[in-house]
């Protein structure tokens, strides 16, 4: 995908900054540049081909042209469309070297902040104030690493979507209802036995054990921070009766609800009155 590699001992050196408005049907011309270029799509979409690969880059996305690649338009871009561009080269800096791979296309969730940042860069470039190049280099570098951090967070969130994570989300939603293997299987669209095996291999617990622990943690919160007695908490969390609730509570914590509460510091509630 002709990704741009940025080494940690290099900073981007900004060459040009500008804004392009598509006000009538327009097709990107053929070119072969020896500089990297970043495009920030403000409106519409960019239709471009780079080294034989077609790209359709929508609003609120960033696209990187890589130096040395042939770029051209195959399809007409219809108005309205608008984007900022920043052309840059690497400049050596005395930092520890390590290659950072920039994603080819980057989505961003704060358009106003990005567009404002780009507008500031454009004004700095046009005004040619003192140290304007250094300002631009720093602002571009800042954007790069905001996007890299955002991309890393999204990858971590995506990779964390294991079966156990999905099951835990369901259990938290159903914390005040009866345990249902059928509900879990239906929501995940998988066989419950398979889900249970995967959950146990990932967490070391059965789904029922995890569910009971979640319910008891919720019970502890209700008993600690609400003016509720044991019977009321048992009813809220969907237990058939307070005796069964107390038995599950002791299995999870090693103490009965009353004994557990006696060992906790609660200056606003008289524990002897609860239950």
UniProtKB/TrEMBL annotation:
InterPro entries, alphabetized: Homeodomain-like_sf, HTH-like, HTH_AraC, HTH_AraC-typ_CS
UniProt domain HTH araC/xylS-type: residue ranges: 165-263
Sorted UniProt keywords: DNA-binding, Transcription, Transcription regulation
Transcription regulation listed as a keyword: yes
GO MF terms, alphabetically ordered: DNA-binding transcription factor activity; sequence-specific DNA binding
Protein's name in the database: Helix-turn-helix transcriptional regulator
Organism: Vallitalea pronyensis
